[in-house]
Amino acid sequence: MATIEAWVAPAAKSSLVRQKVELGPLGDEEVEVEVEHCGLCHSDLSIRNNDWGFSQFPAVLGHEAVGRVVEVGRAAKGLTVGQRVGVGWTAGSCMHCRQCMSGNHHLCPQSTFTIVGHKGAFASRVRAHWGWAVPLPEKINVAEAGPLLCGGMTVFNPLAMYAKPTSRVGIVGIGGLGHMAVKFAAAYGCEVTAFTSSESKFDEARKFGAHRVVSSRNSDAIKELAGVFDLLLVTVNVPLDWDALIASLAPNGRLHVVGFVLEPIPLAVIPLIMGQRSFSGSPIGSPVGIGTMLEFAARHNITPQTEHFPMRRINEAFERLEAGKARYRIVLDVDF
């Protein structure tokens, strides 16, 4: 019976408290990871606040964990004690359904979310199925790698599926997700346009690799880009001028949403049909996809822009994130 130190959310919208937590016996196909760093993602905030309606309390949050394997289940494969790995949004999947057998493990209907009904990584240790503990490349910046495991993969996945180096790509929202999307798309060779509602981010967006920056509040400026984009990646969950954005797609262009938009999106169907355009969305990605993303990030020296807090200041970090002050990702450094 393993006992760990963890920061626990006792109830919705509550402050986190430090407690000892029992993990129980290690599963045959699980590995246990000693956490070194863990990103604080907006999804942690949403689960803490029960914004999506499926949170389970008490909750140990944290799903962008980097650390070393300290114990390996007797049926776990491919990992060794001492190996540095990352654990993201998913801690396990069934490994036998059609989705898992097709390589789409992240779409498994029986997947285990790391922070829902499972003890997450705002803790001294976290567990995951061996397939979801993804080895880190040697050249990756370990202290900054956590946000890549969820936020980074969320934006890398549609770029890998739908973009080419010759693509004209628009990134809507330059925040925790969007700034990484700009970096990935630019490194891939795409022509990148960043859309942001904050003029204070214009220069930063260019430094991240954007060739052009447009105000997402300026419908006239968006309309001037009619027919331009092969892929438009929406990373925010705020009201937008959807008609203008759809019109900015080139023929065969795609509007792809990864921001958790809770309100219905009004779709102009005729422009989609007449331009043979597509509308789609996606969650994170498979373990192989995460590994590919990490290798790409290491090769191109792509890291998120981060602010670091010791984990003992976790509630302060949550307050900063909830106030919209994080620029652009927060990483908690374990100090148990």
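Second entry:
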Amino acid sequence: MNSKRWVAVGLVVLLLVVYARTDVNKSVSAPEGLSLLTSKAFRTETYKEGSGDNIALIRVDGTIINQALSFSTDPAAYNHQSFLQQVEEAFTRPDIKAVVMAIDSPGGGLYESDEAYHKIMKMKEKHSKPLIVSMGSMAASGGYYLAMPADKIFAQRTTITGSIGVIMSSYNYQELAKKIGIQEEVFKSGDNKDMLNPMRATTDEERAIMQSIIDESYGFFVDVVAQGRKMDRQTVINLADGRIYTATQALNVGLIDGIGDLDAAIAEAGNMIQESDPNVLLFKNPPPYNMNWLLSLLSPQLDLLGFQKDMENIVPRPMYLYHS
């Protein structure tokens, strides 16, 4: 074994010792041994101490997308797997009587937004706990999608919301490739196998195929809003042309229920469970850099959760995302 491999092994041992001795998984819901190797653990802490029943506070901050690892140094940044677990924990714990979800997001992946929505719906239908949404600076597109299971939605007066729709984009650098002398050779089993190939123009048939996908996903969004806001479908379609709304505009057209801050949302949750002094528990994400991220820096062979594969599979896909 050469010196570089000995150094790598030594660093791995050191990291294991540090993680074993660091109390980063206190009050987590995942098994402690597993939480060292995944980003699925989460913690809780008191957000607002009270003498009454518990209310859970769950945050949705940033782009709603499933990334095994994140380069963000912000521990509050959205973590999809952690969020799904937080929702389940908040609704299944008998000592928690209501849930407040604070959303500050431009939206994100179609799949992730829909998965998170259905997780919330499933838990809420099974456990019948009040759910109040508090919108921050932005709760647009997929961020608005996640608010639809709520009993009531509050936005601050400067909140931007709406952007009900789907977007998908790609690049075409065919002309640039010609200028620098690059030519692609493609062997494919069917005419549409390489749709959105950036080395050639999109055909009319491909445009029709992609638009059909966008239209179907848009229909899902419209149905979710119609159900959540108890609106006629055509009314939603009239509002859902992709535009954003201020809090006042959203209130006037029925997309939200009131203008108020996070404290107002917590107070409303308390009112719904007849609790004047609730104890608010904040659900927090795990640390941003988990063991797999550190190990993957040392050697490709130690990439336990497929970091390289994730980076190599960045492809265009439909998004419930506010696009400015």
